[in-house]
Amino acid sequence: MSNRLNLLDPEVRANPYPVYAELRRNAPVTQVDPGGIWVVARQADVLTAMKNPQLFSSEGIRRTYRPSWKSDYPLADSMLVMDPPRHTRLRALVNRAFGASMVSRLEPRIREVAHQVVASLPVGRSVNFVDAFSIWVPIAVFGELVGLPRSLHPIIKSWSDVYGEFTSIRPEDTQRQQEIHRAVAETRSHFNEVLEARRREPRDDLVSDLLRAQVDGESLSDTDLMGFLFLLLIGALETAAHLLSSCALMFQEQPELMARLRAQPTLIPRFIDEMLRHSGPAHGLFRMNTDEVELGGVRIPQGSRILLLIASANRDEAAIPDPDRFDMERPGPQNLPFGHGIHFCLGAQLARMEVRVALEELLARFARLTPGEGSIEWNASLVMRGLAQLPLVAHLP
Ligand code: HEM
């Protein structure tokens, strides 16, 4: 047992912000548990690392997605774990298919789904908002993006439940590994079906755009395509669902804020931006340094696993006045919650749209959210912080 701070300690997960503040003050670059990873807590240092992808490499963490028991997890082939020049080429190819027109094309469909999800929430009775509300709009967004039918939504949810645990599965845990093997085979086969169908008959959608995309005469290979679709599955569901759950918790904790947004729905985008800064889902981004480096006055040996704490950077008093206060009047938008530099979130505009639409529908129907039966539970991840359980009771006006 080491005396080091353990970031996965349930008490830390329940409220990591005082711990991040202490790190910023006294140990802005230091080693913590699990595993003696290096954490970087101050905004200036986090930005320095994100601006230098050759030294703070994403490719270096690819082996996290290539454990000995799973050598063919497609996320390991995605641009999330690539550095330039491979990342640059892939990003250019998918960028063209991921434009602003795609976001507006999806909005009416997302509103329809959000309306149905909100309409099916029980009135005056406790329900876990994570399962009953937050996950379904992101699933619909993903289904629409990739062209999977609505009948598959419950299956997509089961994939997202399994993949969320990927990096915490131990080599001896063969049962959970089997679940991953099954889910990957099933996901792959559905993705292959869509790819085949769009090859035969292209449509006005993302997958057809990806199949058409060319840069300097080169298109995406089958491995690139599968890696990108897996990246969308992992990147699009948990993030947006966690943000929606945090928004619902904020409404329960601050009923006057909920009433204000109901009265002035045009404030919802500002609310979302401040939620992203104050309580955003992305907490840490992993990198590996390709050389020995000095950051924040501390030497980090070559080949270390480094966690850039963007949730701490978003509350750094050196950059943001009174950072713990939730304040919708701050100048925005804040983009750091979506990363910075070459890996900046490709879905930032889409995420803002889907969360806005889901909240507009929720606020149009319900006037108050009060605590439900059972306790609130947080997940246990270094990368993504979100609610695993959020019992709430929704009340009509
Ligand atoms: C609130 C919701 C979201 C948050 C907070 C978020 C956050 C992030 C962050 C911090 C990164 C940078 C990762 C890194 O530097 O290693 C990222 C990358 C990415 N995100 Fe998001 N994301 C969200 C929603 C989405 C959605 C809805 C999609 C797609 C539909 C998406 C697709 C991606 C992709 C493809 C990348 C990788 C970009 C690259 O490697 O070049 N994200 N996201």
UniProtKB/TrEMBL annotation:
InterPro entries per record: Cyt_P450, Cyt_P450_B, Cyt_P450_CS, Cyt_P450_sf
Source species, domain of life: Bacteria
Keywords: Heme, Iron, Metal-binding, Monooxygenase, Oxidoreductase
Gene3D superfamilies: Cytochrome P450
Similarity section: Belongs to the cytochrome P450 family.
Protein name per UniProt: Cytochrome P450
